[in-house]
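To close the section, here is one more complete example, presented without commentary so you can practise reading it yourself. The ligand is adenosine-5'-triphosphate.
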Amino acid sequence: MDKIVSLARRRGFIFPSSEIYGGLNSCWDYGPLGVELKRNVKEAWWRYMVRDRDDVVGLDASIIMHPRVWEASGHVAGFSDPMVDCKNCKMRWRPTDLAEPKCPACGGELTESRQFNLMFKTFMGPVEEAANIVYLRPETAQGIFVNFENVLNTTRKKLPFGIAQIGKSFRNEITTGNFIFRSREFEQMELEYFVKPGADDACLEEWTQYRLNWYKNLGMNPENLRLRAHRSDELAHYAKGCYDVEYNFPMGWSELEGIANRRDFDLTQHSKYSGKALEYFDEETKEHFIPYVIEPSAGVERSTLAFLIDAYAEEPDKDEIRTVLHLHPALAPYKIAVLPLSKKEILSDYARKIYADLRKCWMVAYDDSQSIGRRYRRQDEIGTPYCVTVDFQSLEDGMVTIRDRDSMDQIRVKVSELSCILAAKLSGEPFNS
Ligand code: ATP
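Output:
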């Protein structure tokens, strides 16, 4: 993990938040490369979960919602973790994280365990009074449930269908840590997939496999992924069944994503609290009923961290060791780097034309400083799949070299065919001249 944290900091993926003020515990800022990586993770999820399917539509709900939402969902009463305080240094801990009944920081005596609500509270409007309390959402899911009827009426979708959303969530976690694994502000990628009661068990199994395949399709090593079914005594109050997709993080196997059968719990609660019947009318059987829902819920930062860890390698390169991120091309911040062998104007003019051309389709880097070997290393370290090297010979024969990040193989291609060849390589399709 230390190597990932250091690479992420050094190359501009992830910085501690408000660093010039000493940082803010468990808050992170995504730098020029991190923001691209994170956007690519979200884009890959959206494509796989929404655009590639005709049974899922998207949504972008407000972060601050009516406070009654969180009463109906059970978050006001029950979204809490048990917590103990150290009587000496005042540090707070989750009892489940402690090996011994004393403070891990100072060895001090601990208080009795009490429940601590994880929702961030604030006030809406100019007056700070109880009537104006609102919450920052602790999950994106409720924004979907309260819009169930709106989406149903405007899209005329038939069961089974899903509503997907990506957005920020906030939890005042008692203990954070392991870099971006658990923070207080994070993004979730959630799908609520509505089905007829009775079809829910099979649907949970289907979504579990579909989600596992998403990570594998994006190049994650299957040996670092596993599914874990929740025991009945660890199921959330709303859930009938649940799987965790776990990743073999440096600190051990930990949850990457949860896939739960939430039954009709949320729609039933919102029907009760809002007075609106959130039902579905089945035109074939002429029945009104509340659908069941299967929820795959993934974290953007956790996936990003897992993709980074999984991609990281230190490999022999001639007499040295190179650091390389074997990121899937869909996730890599830069897809291509254009590297002119010299800074001479005649060569850089030519290379810049190629750069401008490739940028129309992809995120492309341009680097003309230091030796070509060092430039390849720099691109390997940030996961750029292909480098295009432009040399003086290129000016004469109109050909450039493509260098492959993973195999380090080099091929010479015509500039006129460069875009098509790179498109084929980046998509994994064969190229026919
Ligand atoms: P954990 O037990 O690890 O805190 P959880 O079971 O509370 O997670 P869920 O409520 O199932 O998490 O949320 C779904 C997903 O959202 C998680 O699998 C994770 O990827 C992400 N997530 C939840 N809490 C956090 C957090 N504090 N920081 C980063 N990601 C989070």
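Once you have examined the tokens, check your reading against these statements. The two ends are 44 Å apart (CA to CA). The longest helix spans residues 32-51.
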